[in-house]
Amino acid sequence: MVQWGCIADDVTGATDLATNLVGQGLRTVVLFGPPEEDGTERPPAGARGPGAPGALDGLGDVDAVVIALKSRTAPVDRAVRQSLAAARLLEAVGCDRFYVKYCSTFDSTPAGNIGPVVDALMEHLGETVTIVVPSFPDAGRTVYLGHLFVGDDLLDESPMRDHPLTPMRDSSLPRLLAPQTSSEVAQITLPTVRSGPQALASALESLRTPGGRVAAVLDAITTDDLRTIMEGSRALRIVTGGSGLAQGLAPLENARARDITVRPGLRAVLCGSASQRTREQVAHARDRLPWRKLDPQVLRTAFDRAVADIVRWARELWASDESATPLVYSADSLADVVHDAPGRDAESSAELVERAIAAIARGFVDAGVTQLIVAGGESSGGVLAGLGVTRLRVGPEISAGVTWGAALTRGGALLNVALKSGNFGPVDMFTTAWRELGRTSGQEGKVSAK
Question: Which residue among 54, 326, 367, 391 is least packed, with the fewest CB closer than 10 Å?
Answer without folding.
Answer: 54
